[in-house]
UniProtKB/TrEMBL annotation:
UniProt cross-references to PROSITE patterns, sorted A to Z: OMPR_PHOB, RESPONSE_REGULATORY
GO CC field: cytosol; protein-DNA complex
Name recorded for this polypeptide: Two-component system copper resistance phosphate regulon response regulator CusR
Key words, A-Z: DNA-binding, Phosphoprotein, Transcription, Transcription regulation, Two-component regulatory system
GO aspect biological process, one term: regulation of DNA-templated transcription
Organism name: Enterobacillus tribolii
Pfam families on file: Response_reg (PF00072), Trans_reg_C (PF00486)
Residues annotated with 4-aspartylphosphate modification: 51
Domain of life from the UniProt record: Bacteria
Amino acid sequence: MKILLVEDQAMAAEYVAKGLREQGMVVDVAANGPDGLHYLLTADYDLAILDVMLPGLNGWDILETARKAGRQTTVMFLTARDDVEDRVRGLELGADDYLVKPFSFSELLARIRVIQRRQAEPQAPEKTVLHVADLELDLLKHQVHRQGKRLDLTPKEFTLLSLLMRRSGEVLSRIVIAEQVWDMHFDSGTNVVDVAIRRLRTKVDDPFDVKLLHTIRGAGYVMELRE
């Protein structure tokens, strides 16, 4: 397993890298954000372990930049930032795991083993046609139908609907929707998400008896069929 470790504390980096190498893993170490991003963008890794507070570029920005560049490397945050908001932010940016310092090496290793097993499992091909009840979205043809009737959506509405349908049954916050659809950090003073949901609802829900797009007060929105 090839791992990138981005950690500016020399002793911590040496401790983790030494332990992983003793387990037969190949480890590259970067001591600052820009170097870590360079490694992540130019080499292939099975796992990147990122601190958050780094010189030059923080871990959030490293991950966000890498994802925008199309890098799907598995990422774990290893950081002293233990607030719930920080953990949520890391996971919503696309991290696969989040471990808070101080940590035990055995726990870190156990989590890496879980990632190894998950990567070894055969991946099912991604669905190109999504369904929620009688609503159908074809990702390849870029078409949406409900009850056999084609719905005319704008590109942003299509992207928004595909996100909601991919994660059907999951409540998505306005922050997640804003970042995934508009690539923007959510500003509580803007209602762009609510307006877009309202417009989407007029096309996929209002003309039909059964409603699929639901508002969860104080939490966000969910696409699902309710009995």
